[in-house]
Structures are given as C-alpha cells and as structure tokens.
Amino acid sequence: MLLVRIAVLCFISLLLPVTCCAQSVWTLETSGTAASLRGIHAVSRQIAWVSGSGGTILRTLDGGRHWTKCATPPNAIRLDFRAIWAWSARDAIVMSSGPGVLSQVFKTADGGKHWKQMAANADPQGFWDAMVFENRRKGFVLGDPVNGRFVLLATTDGGRAWRRPTKRSTPPGLKVHDNAGGAFAASNTSLMAGPHEPMLFGGGGAWVYRQTSSHRTGQRSWASVQAPLAHTGQAAGVFSLGYHAGTIVAVGGDYTRPADSGGTAAWSRDGGRHWTAAQHPPHGYRSAVAWDAAAHAWITVGTNGTDISYDGGQNWQPLGNGSWNALSLPFAVGPKGRIGRLNSAAAPRTAER
User: 272: closest CA among 252, 254, 248?
Assistant: First the structure.
C-alpha cells in the first residue's frame, strides 16, 4: 500500500496507559540510527538483521548488545527497506517497498559489506509488501494488485532471479475484492509461507487469501475468506499472520485508530479456512504477531503496545505500551531506531482471565 497508509502514528502510543509487569518485557538496545525500522529477521538468538527507511540495514552478532550498520546498497539511500530475510551472519536479502521502482530487492554474501540488486519493480502501479522464504532457495514477494490482481513473484535460487507468473499461468483466485485495497507493508508478516505451514496472505478488508491444490489434478489456486477483524476503510484489515503447531493467528485492526481494541485478533485451526475472533483481543491495533517458544505463548505488538496470549490467540492480556512495528523473536523493531529484546521471564506465567 502507499507509504502514507502505513505511516506510524508514534505520538498515539502514549495514550491509554497500560498496566504491565513490574519488570519490563522489552530490553531496549542501542541501534545507532533514527530510521523507521520495519524489517527484522533473527537467524538465531545471537544473529539478527534489521532494515528500515533511508536505506538502513543493521546486523548484530552478539544477541543485540551491539548493532553494526551495514553498507547501503547501490543508489538505495532513499529506499525504505520493509523486509529482510537472512540465513547466516553473511547471507541476507532485503526488499524495499514503494510505488514503482521504489520496490527493489538486494542480496549480500559478505555480511552486508556489498549488495547486488536482484530485482526491481518495473510496473509504475506496483507496490511490494512482503518477502518470505520457505528454505534457502524458494521464496516469494507479495505485491499490491495491478490491474485488479495481487502480484506474487517467486524465486527458486535463493533470490538471484525472480519470476512473475504470466497471465495464463497465474493461479486463479488472486483477484482483489471490491474496495478491499492491497496488502500491508507494516512488518513483513502479511505473507506466510513455510515448509510445514500453509501459504496465506492477508490485507485490506480483513480478507485472507489461502493457496489451495486440487487433489485430482494438483493444480494450484487461491481461495479467500473474510476474517473477523476490523475492515472498514483501506486502513483496516489483516496486517500479520503467524503459525505454530496447527494454529494460525491473525492480527490487525485500523492503524488510524490504534487504541481501538475491537477486531484486532482472530485464530484458525483448519489452515485458514475458518476464523474465530479473539474473545478478549489485544488492547489496540497490532502490526505483527509471533510465537514465543520460551514463554510458550503468542506475542503481538503495535504502535500502542504489546500483548500476550497463552491459549492460541483466544484471549490476550497487555504487557506494555511502547511503540513497535515488527517482530522476529526475541527482537522487535519500531520507529526512530527503536530495537528491543524480549525478556520472556518478565511476562506473566498465567493468563489474567
């Protein structure tokens, strides 16, 4: 979506103070940048990569105690890197979001010292939202609709070459719903794909698109269902999807109303075919969700705070009111260079309800 549609309303994060643990669940770290950060990928608890506005790319090798600024890719100082994916301390790939040629992909094999452009959006109507990989070779880029259909690029060589399906080979079902708008480039988690999980993406209108396959012919297509999240206007919908042990959690809401808790979370246990709204939702709009193996719970963040669920996304309780954009646990990133490391031991061990 247009960058203005997902701009962070930082000042609102101070509204509606939230009761939280005596000990902060986030340890703030020194990033050395004031960039807006939305890309985060933790290779391990020690190695992580971060990306953001102004061509910013950071890396840590010691669990976040020190963050090092990587070289800016060629001619990328004005790009907003909304997505980053990494396999090691040396190998990473980064994607920028923006209209037309402002959406690009770069790759490094030397720890961020040098970057090579791998793809650029040649369609002036296009806007890339998310990038995920199933393994070291197979990955996908999700883009907003062009001529009424979502764009889905694919790579089978680790991001060196990307292909866009032809009109004839494009699987059916990727047509955008009326007045639904596109996907959201808020946290690089609007698209979900993995070796042991279904392929889904969410977007405006709270629509969730799910890849299906014919048992008889093997032909792939897409089916869509509207999740019970806020969906009035193009600023509302499904912003993030997470998967763990057969449960899919969707979070979102209306980013222009960050304190509204209605329609901010739902869950599915049948691969995304049916969705149930959270009984006690997060306490505001949420842009990212992830499973925390250390706490055995779901964590979700947004511009007005953090929430936790111990029962598969059915009930959520607040953990704090700091402003965050994206998650790759144990790390979170946010506006003005904000990076935090989750202190799972500080989270309540049982649900309040």
Answer: 248
